[in-house]
Design a protein that fits this description.
heterodimer, A: 97 residues, alpha+beta, four-stranded antiparallel β-sheet, 22% strand, B: 306 residues, alpha/beta, 37% helix, 16% strand, globular
């Protein structure tokens, strides 16, 4: 089962077309294993990207170097998944009993 | 199905079990069609809601084509119960079903959905194997024969938006294409995704405006207004390419080019910071508000048959 411990989802706010392009460059770097939840779109709409732990440092340095603003939308993806799983299994356990 | 828990996420087996229960409880109204089998051999089911007649004008609704967008399959389950229980109770829905059929495909990407439950919760694509590549799956919303392979999708099998070897290469897509073509009387085609609160209409693969752009835009405005009236959820609306980005090979572009005028894609909640991991507590509110928009589109279609 795929484990997402340490993966973060960054919410990137691009100010202009040049910044959209910069983020699009990131998308092409397959070794970073980025997963765009909301892809680069019209300026004004946020870009959400899941970043594996191993790529976090590089991506944050890249964004900060290019003055691209971001916030951490999800601190740790796995912890949200664990909550979701717990709820599903709790229901199934009740249903079984 | 009265005691089914609509406020949590369910497994594929539980959803298929729900479908069978609904058919058993409303045999005069609901039937289950199998339109094909997935790449891995799972059945692909579509619910048909019909009060009779032969090949009536119909409305197509699908959820879950991108498997990780769990709130959409969960909303599809809620819609199915809503349609069944409201027929004969709600005047608007009753008038729709007295003249039209509704087809609802709740799990449009069963292999992908099973994979999100077993191996990778964030899986989006199908699970077909691409010869010569280590990467698996095709984006089932880039595989339709509308601008297929153009900008707005990827030729790389490892990309989340990989368009596949050829249009309709994915049996999950081809099954719908064949069904819609064989039916020949679908008047509205609504594909439900998440997230980012958008109501989109053609086109995604070209900047050219749809011939019915003004009407589609006006109907989208009404639908979004109805949706927002319940909980104030803010939606934007417009053509795919103008509102988000260029996306080729999408289902609603194909449907529109087939002559299905009222073709829309919804992008449901998240309004906060959960993305695809929307808490189950938001399933029912999301389904309820979306239903108001769906009803607006269905009523308009009924009153503007073509």
């Amino acid at each position: 089962k795929e484990d997402f411990v340490g993966h973060q989802v960054l919410r990137i706010s691009v100010a202009d077309e040049a910044q959209v392009q910069k983020v699009t460059e990131l998308e092409e770097l397959e070794h970073l294993q980025l997963d765009f939840w909301r892809g680069p779109a019209q300026t004004g709409s946020p870009i959400d990207v899941r970043v594996p732990f191993a790529s976090l440092q590089a991506v944050k340095v890249f964004l900060e170097t290019h003055g691209i603003e971001y916030t951490i939308m999800i601190e740790d993806v796995q912890s949200l998944l664990d909550e979701e799983q717990e709820q599903m299994f709790a229901f199934q356990a009740r249903a079984a009993s | 199905t009265d005691t089914f828990n609509y406020a949590i996420y369910h497994t594929l087996e539980e959803i298929y079990g729900f479908i069978d229960m609904l058919v058993a409880e409303y045999p005069q109204l609901v039937s289950k069609l199998q339109i094909g089998n997935t790449y891995e051999g799972r059945p692909i089911y579509v619910l048909k809601f019909s009060t009779g007649g032969d090949n009536r004008p119909a409305i197509w609704i699908d959820t879950g084509i991108h498997s990780r967008e769990w709130v959409t399959q969960a909303s599809g389950v809620w819609f199915a119960k809503k349609i069944a229980q409201d027929y004969g109770q709600d005047a608007a829905l009753t008038s729709i079903l007295d003249s039209m059929d509704i087809f609802l495909e709740i799990v449009t990407n069963p292999d992908g959905f099973a994979f999100t439950l077993s191996k990778n919760r964030l899986w989006r694509k199908t699970r077909s194997i691409t010869a010569g590549s280590l990467c698996v799956g095709v984006d089932p919303n880039r595989n339709w024969d509308a601008g297929f392979g153009l900008a707005g999708a990827s030729s790389s099998p490892c990309s989340q938006t990989y368009y596949g070897k050829f249009a309709n290469s994915e049996v999950e897509v081809k099954s719908i294409v064949d069904f819609v073509k064989n039916h020949g009387n679908i008047k509205a085609f609504i594909s439900i995704h998440s997230y980012s609160q958008l109501l989109l209409y053609p086109y995604g693969y070209t900047t050219e405006s749809a011939a019915d752009q003004a009407e589609l835009d006006q109907l989208a405005e009404s639908a979004v207004k109805a949706l927002s009236s319940l909980y104030g959820t803010h939606f934007k609306y417009g053509s795919i390419i103008d509102t988000i980005y260029q996306a080729s090979g999408s289902s609603i572009d194909w449907a529109y080019n087939q002559g299905i005028k009222y073709s829309y894609t919804f992008e449901l909640r998240d309004t906060g910071s959960y993305g695809f991991l929307l808490p189950a507590s938001q399933i029912v509110p999301t389904a309820q508000e979306t239903w108001l928009a769906l009803q607006t589109i269905m009523e308009y279609t009924l009153n503007h048959l073509y």
